[in-house]
Amino acid sequence: MLLVTGLVSKRLPKYRFEYQRNMQVRKGSKEHIEACLSIAKEVSQYFPEKAIAAMSQDLQEHRLYIAVDSDEVIGFVAIQIKSSQVAEISWMAVKAKRQHQGVGSQLIDHIADDLKGQEIRLLQVKTLASNVDYAPYELTRQFYEKRGFVHLETIDPFPEWEPGNPGAIYVKVV
Ligand SMILES: CC(C)(COP(=O)(O)OP(=O)(O)OC[C@H]1O[C@@H](n2cnc3c(N)ncnc32)[C@H](O)[C@@H]1OP(=O)(O)O)[C@@H](O)C(=O)NCCC(=O)NCCS
Question: What is the pTM of this model?
Fold first, then answer.
C-alpha cells in the first residue's frame, strides 16, 4: 500500500510537467501588460478593482516575466528590485483554467534562477495573512510555502492595505 502511494505521488508532477511541455517562461514587455491584467481580472476573488488599478501602474515599472503557451500568455510574475540583494514579487497570477498544473511553480523556478545570476539573494512576497478566514488566499500561501518560501512575520494592520487585510511576509533564499 505504501509502495502504491509512493508511485502515485511521484507520477503526478511528471504528468503535470508533460502537460506544460509547450510552455515557455520569458521576460515580458509593455505589449503583454493587457494580457496580464486580463488574467488577473478573471480571478477577481484575489484582485479587487483597486488592486487591478495598482497592478496596472506597477506592471509599467516592474520587471515582468510571462508564461506563454502557443503564443498565449497564461501566467505572469512582476518583480520589483528592492536593493542589490533583495527582490520582491509584486504581482503574480495564472489563468484560472491553467492553475494547479505547475505553471506558477515554473515561473518561480525561472525567476529564482534569473535573480540568482544577478547576485540577488532574497526573494520576498507579501500576501493576505492566515488570521483572516478567506479560503482563496489559503491556496496562495500553500503555493508559496511549497515553493520554499518561509513565513517571516504577519503585520496587522498592514499599513499599505485596506483595514481588515493583515499582511504575511514570506521570504525565499534564491
Ligand atoms: C497562486 C498561483 C500563482 C499558483 O500558480 P499555479 O500554477 O496554480 O501553481 P502550481 O500548479 O505550480 O502549484 C500548485 C500548488 O499551489 C497551491 N495552489 C494555488 N492555487 C491553487 C488552485 N487554484 N488550485 C489548486 N492548488 C492551488 C496548491 O498548494 C498546489 O499544490 P499541490 O499541487 O500539491 O496541490 C495561482 O494559483 C494563482 O494565480 N492564484 C490566484 C492569484 C494569486 O493568488 N496570486 C498571488 C497573489 S500574492
Answer: 0.90
Q: Write the single-letter amino acid at 6.
A: G
CATH superfamily label, 2-173: Gcn5-related N-acetyltransferase (GNAT) (3.40.630.30)
Position 78 scores a pLDDT of 98
Which residue puts its alpha carbon closest to atom 42 of ligand 1?
Answer: 93
Instruction: State the pLDDT at residue 7.
Output: 39
Residue-wise pLDDT tens digits, 135-147: 999 999 999 999 9
Side by side, which strands form the sheet with 63-69?
23-27, 63-69, 72-81, 86-94, 122-128, 167-173, 150-155
150-155 and 63-69: which strand pairing?
A: unpaired
How remote is the CA of residue 6 from the centroid of ligand 1, in Å?
23
Q: Whose CA is nearest to atom 26 of ligand 1?
A: 100
Does any ligand 1 atom lie closer than 6 A to the CB of residue 102?
Answer: yes
Query: Taking the domains of the chain in order of start, what are their residue ranges?
Result: 2-173
Is the pLDDT assigned to residue 9 strictly greater than 60? no
